[in-house]
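Structure ticket #2291
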Amino acid sequence: MRSARSRIYLLLVGFFVSSAAGAQGSVPQQGPVLQKVPENVILVKGAWSSASDNVTPLPEGGKVSTDSYNSPYFGLTLPLPAGWIQKYEGPPPSDSGYYVLAQLRPADPTPGQGGGRPRDHARGTLLIAAQDMFFTTTHATGPLELINYTRDHLQADYRIERPPSNITIAGRDFVRFGYVSPVAGLHWTFFATQIRCHVVEFIFTSADTQLLENLARNLGGLKSQPEIDASEPVCIKGYASAENILERVDPVFSERKYNQVPVRVIIDREGKVKHIHFLSAFPTQSQAISAALSQWRFKPYLRNGQPVEVETGMLFGHVPQGAL
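Resolution: structure written out below.
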């Protein structure tokens, strides 16, 4: 889990260098027009997330407004602490299904109003993240196992302050966990819950333990859909198995790539693929896989004798041994 979280922050930054006219006033040679990189933007080339339509909510599709974080996919609305903002959006999902959904912190003070920056001990951060349990490399099946994995892989100089324990917030079951880095003087508090085969985590960090408690209480304002929502597809890991596939066409790739391609699909009541979500794929890969999946047919999944939609995951491309 730690390796996936570390890799998600390692991005390839593109730099654009434009040619200047000669120092002696010579006429510059004509060439390609180069565009200036926008400020506060990180450019990443390569595999990316995409979807077959722009209507179906996606896990990474949550938005931060002036006063709340809202995720239609997860059915969550969290009021933000007063004065907190998101300065930068997170990177795309990793190929092991780890999402940075939102990165929040107190806004910098306006010059001339209160002067200077807030004292370090009064500052903190909130990371809202999600781990897709279809593609996790930890073999965890839920929040407690994922939190236990984090606990068991802490650095040697970290100290556990609060062992994993169960707690109910906004009618949902959460696991709470806390640890500290005595050297850095920083404390972490985790709250994790399971939604649609994802473990969603709210991770607070600060050097001020009282601020952490205040932030944890703010989580009490979370608004959430019921844990079982009849309007959502049934989430089933491994549903795309031989016994459930009636018709299958393998994708034909135009070029060889060596990445794994994690794909979430929603299968309708008739067994057809109605929605495709690529967590990480090159455009040529997503095109080939979409063309193939449009021809797949599954056995309709029955719940109480009635066909219902199913959400499941598949891996294409370079699939690691033992995956799924």
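Closing remark: The domain at 234-317 is CATH 3.30.2420.10 (TolA/TonB C-terminal domain).
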